[in-house]
Amino acid sequence: MSLPSMTVGGVEVQGLSDGTLPTSLDKVVDMDAAQAERLVGGTDNGTFHIPVNNFVIRRDGKVIMIDAGAGNTMYPTLGRLPGNLRAAGVDPSAVTHIVITHLHGDHANGLVDDAGNAHYPNAEIVVHEIEADFWMAPDGANDSDKVKGNRARTKINLKPYLNRIHRVRRSEEYLGFVPVIAPGHTPGHTCWLLTAPGGGGFMALGDVVHVSAIQISHPDAGMIYDLDKDQAVKSRKRILDMAASERFAIAGAHVNAPGFGHIVRKGASFAFEAG
Ligand SMILES: [Zn+2]
To answer: Which of 91, 171, 198, 232 is most buried as measured by Cβ atoms within 10 A of its Cβ?
Structure first.
C-alpha cells in the first residue's frame, strides 16, 4: 500500500506502509478502557490495529528512508515494506541511508532478512548516539527482560551494518535532518525535523504518538511500551506543542491514515488536522 506524500522546501517525503500492528486496550495506561475504546472507534474484544508507516525522501542523489519496519519477526500483518518500496520504484539496494527514530522491533527488525543479512546492502544507518549506546550496551543487573530482549535483537539488527553506522551527536544536522531528542518511549528516541527554507517543514514523530486516535487529544495517556512513561508524556507534550507553534507537518510511525498532517491546539490539548 502506498501512502500519501508531501513536499517540503522542494523535497518530496513519501509514505510507505509496513502493514498494521495489532495492539489492545490493556496496553493503554492512565486512561480507562471504555474511553480508550471510544476514541479508537471500537475494538474486537479489546484488540485494534495501528499502522506502521515508513518514509522515503529522495534528495541530492540520496535515497533516505526513515525506519525499516518489522520484517517477518512480529506479526503476519507486517513486513510489507520491501515490497511496497519496490512498488514505489525503489530497490532496497538503492537505499543509501536509513534514519532511525528508535531501535524497537517494528522500526528496526526489518533492517535484516530472516538469515540476519543486511536487507539494505548499501545503506548507512543514521541513529542518535544516545539511542545506539543504550541498546548496544551490555545488560545491567537491574535491566528488565523487555530491555534485555530488545538489546539482544538490536545486536542482530545492526550486526551487518557495524562499519556503516553514523552516530549523530546532540542536535547536529545530518542529511538536512535535525534530531530532536524526545526520550521516554526509549532513552534516545529521536524525532527528525526536515526544515523548509521558507519556514515550516516536516517532522517524523516516531513513537512520540503511538496511538494517534488517543494520544494527540489525550497526551497524558501512555502505552506499556514506554520505558519511562512520565518522561514519554513530557516529550509528547513538548513535541506536539512545538509542532503546533512552528506549524510544521508531522507524520508518525503509527499515525492513522492519511498520516501526514498538522497539529493544532484545542483547549488545553491538541488535535490532528489531516493534509
Ligand atoms: Zn513503534
So the answer is: 232
